[in-house]
Write a structure and sequence with these properties.
Blueprint: E1 5-11, H1 15-28, E2 33-35, E3 44-49, H2 56-76, E4 82-86, H3 87-93, H4 95-100, E5 106-108, H5 116-126, E6 129-131, H6 139-142, H7 148-154, E7 157-161, E8 163-164, H8 175-178, E9 183-184, H9 187-199, E10 204-208, E11 217-218, E12 224-225, H10 227-234, E13 242-246, H11 255-263, E14 270-272, H12 280-285, H13 292-305, E15 310-317, H14 324-337, E16 341-346, H15 364-387, E17 393-401, E18 407-411, E19 417-421, E20 430-438, E21 443-447
Parallel strand pairs: 1-2, 1-3, 3-4, 4-5, 5-6, 7-10, 10-13, 14-15, 15-16, 19-21
Antiparallel strand pairs: 8-9, 11-12, 17-18, 17-20, 18-19, 20-21
Helix pairs in contact: 10-11, 11-13, 14-15
The structure holds iron/sulfur cluster.
């Protein structure tokens, strides 16, 4: 253990990266690193990168440029700053990062975070280190758990990674290359982590994985457990009131998981189920391995199991070969399902993926126009879903203070942010709130009665 040093971690992209950033901070805490909210006086800066968005690598290089200036300013004052690049861009670019940006001391792939203390010591001793191998040992075995104080500081809702990697190989996606094949954590490891979180005051757990519903972790009985079985067991952990899981693939929406939406009270009525396109031709080109009709049939079964289920999705517009007719099918699907929200992006080729080499790449102006029209349809459906909550009483888990004094913010069962005027002592509690006003991205309401105790779910 050395003296106290400041660590700044900047997380890009998905919840998997937010979770990994927290685990990196936990792993470095015994080395004397204390998390800092800003990079200015940090001794170690970690950029935990994402490869999903357009020009991801270029954005990382410009961020490194900003951090390099801080490093130079610190050096002028006689202070050493280390810069590390982690995450999917680190995995994809590897040594190229150090070649293009010599200010970087360490490039660490997403499977190697448990080696951070050792890698940093090597970088301090001997200069830049690159470690993007897929190791045979399991990083989860070695990553340090957070302290109770760190968990409390992160709030009452927590992510737990249960699965990593993907075997699906959608033709637009780098994840199978940057995160590797599907791996599931054993049930007992997941339970131990959830129990630690619950003991520190966490009330809501979201089980996460690139392909979370493909979960097949080894159970204490020696068998492979499904995600539904894992959820059922996690729901029994004392103190955990709410469960969610993300991100799912339609192909892995198994019968027992659909039934869990009916039977498991702690499982919130909200599901993120990406489809990407409403056109069968484009779904086939994307190698999604399901049709629009199959997706709609899954949604119908889910809604029979849980009629108030809020569904969100992901869409890509302008995939190679997408015609106006294909796009019209995406628009019609959005209205047919009535999503409560969705993420939508213009297709951008990722080097090394089959989509990047496809003929018929779509003009940027066409993509931009389709994205605008799609987002208008998504917003319309989201507003419609939110309006249905007006006048209803929903249970809200309060997570933090609002921007205005006297205001606190929580989440409805449908994952909508809900703001009310109430004492901060309610943070961490679940209470019924009557929705009185709808804004574009959040709901406003008032406490329906005295704070309910655990289990007052919609
Ligand atoms: S299912 Fe497709 S989009 Fe999702 S991580 Fe796997 S390859 Fe990427």
């Amino acid at each position: 253990m050395t003296g106290s040093r400041k660590l700044y971690v900047k997380s890009f992209g998905c919840q998997m990266n937010v979770y990994d950033s927290q685990r990196m901070a936990d792993t470095l805490a015994p080395e004397g690193y204390v998390e800092s909210a800003a990079p200015d006086d940090a001794d170690l800066i970690i950029l935990n990168t994402c490869h999903i968005r357009e020009k991801a690598a270029e954005k990382v290089y410009s961020e490194i440029g900003r951090m390099r200036r801080l490093k130079e300013a610190a050096a002028a004052e006689g202070r050493d700053v280390l810069i590390a690049v982690a995450g999917c861009v680190a995995q994809a670019e590897g040594a190229e990062i150090v070649r293009r940006a010599p200010a970087v001391d360490l490039v660490v792939g997403s499977q190697n975070y448990h080696r951070l203390p050792d890698l940093l010591a090597r970088a301090e001793r001997a200069g830049a280190v690159v470690d993007t191998e897929f190791p045979v040992d399991d990083k989860f075995e070695h990553l340090a758990p957070p302290s109770a104080a760190a968990t409390r500081a992160r709030g009452v809702s927590a992510f737990v990674t249960v699965q990593e990697g993907c075997d699906k190989f959608c033709t637009f996606c780098v994840v199978p290359y940057t995160r590797g094949a599907e791996v599931s954590r054993p049930v007992e490891k997941v339970l131990a982590e959830v129990e630690r979180l619950a003991a520190a005051g966490v009330r809501e757990v979201t089980l996460i994985g690139q392909n979370v519903n493909a979960y097949h972790g080894r159970g204490p009985d020696g068998r492979l457990w499904s995600l539904a079985r894992l959820l059922e067991r996690v729901a029994q952990v004392r103190g955990i009131e709410r469960l969610r899981y993300t991100t799912s693939h339609p192909l892995d929406m198994a019968d027992d998981l659909i039934a869990a939406h009916r039977d498991l009270r702690a499982l919130m009525p909200q599901l993120h189920l990406p489809i990407q396109s409403g056109s069968d031709r484009i779904l086939a080109a994307m190698n999604r391995r399901h049709t629009r009709a199959e997706y709609v049939a899954i949604v119908e079964r889910l809604l029979r199991a849980r009629p108030d289920l809020a569904l969100t999705s992901d869409f890509i517009v302008g995939f190679p070969g997408e015609t106006e007719r294909d796009f019209a099918e995406t628009l019609s699907l959005v209205d047919a399902i009535g999503f409560s929200g969705a993420f939508s992006f213009k297709y951008s080729p990722r080097p090394g993926t089959p989509g990047a080499d496809m003929a018929e790449q779509i003009d940027e102006a066409v993509k931009a126009d389709r994205l605008r029209r799609l987002q208008a349809a998504i917003d319309r459906n989201q507003a419609h879903f939110n309006r249905r909550c007006l006048g209803r009483t929903v249970s809200v888990l309060f997570e933090r203070r609002g921007r205005h004094s006297g205001q606190i913010v929580g989440r409805s069962p449908y994952l909508q942010p809900v703001q009310i005027e109430a004492p901060a002592s309610l943070i961490g509690e679940i209470a019924p709130v009557t929705i009185t006003e709808i804004a574009s991205n959040s709901l406003f309401g008032a406490l329906a009665r005295q704070p309910a105790l655990a289990g007052a779910e919609a």
